[in-house]
Amino acid sequence: MSKNNAMHRGGCRVDDHPQIGRRDLLQAGAMSLFGMGLGDLMRLEAQAAATQSVRPGKAKAVVFIFQSGGPSQHETFDPKPEAPDTIRGEFGVTQTRIPGEAFCEHLPMLSARSDRFSIIRTMNHVAGREFRNEHNSCTYLLHTGSTSLPVGDTNASIPQPRLGRASWPSIGSMIAFATPTAPDVGLPAMIELPRNSQMKYPGRESGLLGPAYDRLGLDLAAPCGAEGGSCPNCFRHADPNLDPERLPGGTRAWWDHSSCRNPDFHLPDFGQPQGINVPQLENRAVLLKQLDELRRSIDQRERTTPEATWDAHRKQAMRFILSNRPGQKNPFDLTQEPDRTRDLYGRDEWGQGLLVARRLVEAGVRMVQVNLRGWDTHQNAFRDLKGKLLPSLDRSLSGFLDDLADRGLLDETLIVMCGEMGRTPRIYPITPNGKNVAGEIFTNGRHHWGDVFPCFFAGGGIQPGRIIGRTDSQGGLPVTESYTPEDLAATIFHCMGVGRDREFHDSTGRPYRVYRGQPIHALL
Which residues contact 86 (CB under 8 A, 6 or more apart)? Predict the structure, then answer.
């Protein structure tokens, strides 16, 4: 095991901690003759690092778009049109504005905007095979910017609480620590949406930083029994093909026989059984009455609930919403947006999620994560990618890029999008002759693959119009330089103006560097 990957018993790595040479140590010890001890020196050095390492960065905020489940590189940004059909898949390609480069044919809008963003085709996991092809492990590695699990953890144990775990903080928690919001913002630094209750994945916690830097996760979308896709065009991969009443626009959703395809967001739920829905938002009198009732219920709760058990971030966001009331200053109130803008993003869950992200960035939030579920395409992959996933992504992300550019926000907003892994080069059935509940045989898909996956970057100091990294003829392995989640995290922090020497301390006072990888210089 190399020095870079060597772990201490406490779960940290040698190069996480600042090093001090023997000569420096002796000089520091001598300072005690002048009334300054080694502890004083180290404290002053840490304070100096905190002020000197954060230089003005191009990006003021980052929007991380998480394609939960792991999208296929072949059906997005790294197609292999010359490969056999068992590798190539069912889709053709569309040319981008980058000479000689093509994307999947079902991403035409993004292909036409390829001069506004760059793609890394050779992201990869370097953890052991037992870790780099599994959702739990890969999700932890991606969201913490890590190359290994905490000491003692497995793919099965990492989603569960475990006494003594030394968990690395999520990138969002690090952003909240290193680049806190301005005092007048009134919202937490890191917000995740739109389905917090359905996204209990490992790696989203604050870990060694402590709960003060937890993210605020919000449910903005209506409850839904689907496993993915952008409501109202949501789905399960086991969805039947042949029942027209159970297709989008039908009278019922197949998984629970009741329609839940309502894409309209509601205001965040701060203790009510249901959030405040769109019709109530549009009825200002009803909305004001409900907000007043909510304020009173929260005040009562604060008087009867110990402060230690109260969610500080939720309280902060609730106070912000109640103080701003409905209107332009409430980033969750999309009824304030003109129809033209809402149509630009698309009136579905993903489009609305990215529109809320733009409004949160304008409100001063430093990091917004928008979760796009449904990319675990083991079966019926080409049906669901063509009919649901790719068209929604193409429209909503293109609208997001256009809107940020038109508002002059793209240069100062870093956009990063990827899943926790890629998909196998070869196409397989999920099970031989496997069938859905309607008795139809599943069509094929691709399985988990952590050896290579693509990542999208735009804005915030990123050089656009670049395709970085090459994979082999099957799209399964990097053949040029590859990059790890540590490098991804380092790139985000670099663009946000966080220097490599920036440190944080755990609850025992032990120092760690905020990030451990190298910024991807080909992007910068």
Answer: 426, 427
CB atoms within 10 A of CB 368: 27
**Residues 498, 45: contact at Cβ < 8 Å?**
no
CB count within 10 Å of CB 87 equals 18
Structural domains of the chain in order of their starting residue, each with its CATH number? 4-51 (no CATH), 60-265+332-498 (3.40.720)
Distance in angstroms (rounded) separating the CA atoms of residues 304 and 488: 44
Mean pLDDT by 10 residues, the chain (524 residues): 37 42 36 37 42 59 98 98 97 98 98 98 96 97 97 96 94 96 89 89 94 90 85 84 58 55 78 51 55 59 46 64 61 92 97 97 96 95 95 98 98 98 95 78 94 98 97 98 98 95 92 94 95
The SS3 call for residue 85 is helix
Q: Is the dihedral of CA 238, 243, 247, 250 positive or negative?
A: negative
Q: What are phi and psi of 122, to 5 degrees?
A: -125, 40
Q: Which of 316, 315, 321, 317 is nearest to 302 (CA)?
A: 315
Q: What is the CA radius of gyration of the chain?
A: 24
Q: Given the structure tokens 């899943």, which residue do they identify? A: 419
Tokens describing residue 76? 């997005």
Residues 514, 502: Cα–Cα separation, whole Å: 6
End-to-end alpha carbon distance in the chain:
31
**Count of residues for the chain?**
524
| Alpha-carbon span 139 to 164, nearest angstrom | 20
Tokens 């009455």 map to which residue?
289
Strands 93-95 and 102-104, by their bridges, are antiparallel
- From CA 268, how far away is CA 193, in angstroms rounded? 10
Enter the DSSP assignment of 129.
Answer: H
One-letter amino acid for residue 249 of the chain: G
HEC string for 459-481: CCCCCCCCEECCECCCCCCECCC
Task: Please give the Cα distance from 377 to 90 (Å, whole number).
Answer: 14
CB 256 within 8 A of CB 234: no
> Are the CB atoms for 416 and 457 separated by under 8 Å?
yes
pTM: 0.83
Residue written as tokens 């793209």?
410
Q: How many CB atoms lie within 10 A of CB 25?
A: 12
